[in-house]
Amino acid sequence: MDKFVKRGNLVYIRKPDFEEIDYIKKLWSDEDTMRDVGGAIHYSEYKWENWYKRMVDPGNGKNFYCLIYNMENTPIGEVSFHGYDRNTKTADLNVKVENKYRGNNYGNEAVMLLLEYYFNSYGGEVIFDTVANENGIEALKTWKFEVLEEKGKEVLFRMTKENFNKMVEQ
């Protein structure tokens, strides 16, 4: 596996080694962290192995997954894109910061690191995210994502490569 790492001032993102799957299990099973994204997730060992092969190593060309680490080298969440379509150059965004680490701008920086890679190295042109909680909605608005559609509590957002690069230049 390539040792992908992108560093910011508060956090860095890196593809996890398989041995770090225990942290991902902990993150996904934490009720407080997962409450806003549909609840805790529990997989069998076999499903975790398949998930890792599809999302991380060797990957399937449609998904890209990293853990978020603070500068003390502690994993504090995850950031990824999934469902990449080579024809339309689009994907869906995912970010989760462990509940106890929220409010420190870790998620903001991790998303910016991932988007910089997605748009300027990977070849993505558009990324989407559907959010149904107030914190997520406010975060995407702060990151200058465009609202495409609102259905009840769910909001569909979009960011283009052009808009991302304009925002970063400012």
What do you see in this structure?
It comes from Clostridium senegalense. This is GNAT family N-acetyltransferase. One of its GO terms (molecular function) is acyltransferase activity, transferring groups other than amino-acyl groups. It holds the Pfam family Acetyltransf_3. Strands 1-2-3-4-5-6-8-7 form an 8-stranded mixed sheet, sandwiched between helices. It has one domain (5-124): Aminopeptidase, CATH 3.40.630.30. The protein is α+β, with helices and mostly antiparallel strands and 170 residues long. It has 6 helices and 8 strands; from the N terminus they run ββαααβββαβαββα. The chain has helices at residues 21-29, 31-34, 45-55, 106-122, 134-142, 161-169, and strands spanning 5-7, 11-14, 64-70, 75-85, 90-97, 126-131, 146-151, 154-160.
Question: Which tags fit this structure?
Answer:
170 residues, alpha+beta, Aminopeptidase, eight-stranded mixed beta sheet, 6 helices
